[in-house]
């Protein structure tokens, strides 16, 4: 399946790839999730603690745009 062929609201990124794209560690992303209520919630397809976390690409993009807008206000 080609992820680019999916509509933006259906594209998912793993937490590992999100960490790479944000140049953050897994614990850094975890701190963002705890401290920023606007940060997108992950999706898990299992109740297991070891289940892979996915994030909706469109939600991450919107969050990043909001962060850029805040930067312009300061």
Structural account:
- The termini are far apart.
- With 74 residues, this protein is of the alpha+beta class.
- Strands 1-3-2 form a 3-stranded antiparallel beta sheet.
- The mean pLDDT is 90.
- It has helices spanning 15-22, 26-35, 57-73; strands spanning 12-14, 43-44, 53-56.
- The protein has one domain (8-73): Multidrug-efflux Transporter Regulator, Chain: A, Domain 2.
- The longest helix has 17 residues, at 57-73.
Number of domains: 1
* CATH first level: Mainly Alpha
**Shape, please?**
globular
Adjacency order of strands in the biggest sheet: 1-3-2
Order of helices and strands: EHHEEH
Rg is 13 Å
Count the DSSP helices.
3
Overall mean pLDDT stands at 90
Number of strands: 3
Helix content range? 40-55%
Distance between the termini: 42 Å
């Amino acid at each position: 399946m080609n992820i680019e062929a999916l509509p933006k609201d259906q594209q998912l990124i793993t937490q590992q790839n999100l960490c790479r794209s944000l140049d953050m560690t897994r614990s850094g992303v975890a701190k963002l999730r705890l401290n920023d209520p606007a940060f997108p919630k992950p999706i898990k397809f299992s109740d297991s603690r070891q289940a892979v976390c996915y994030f909706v690409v469109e939600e991450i993009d919107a969050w990043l745009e909001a962060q850029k807008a805040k930067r312009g206000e300061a």
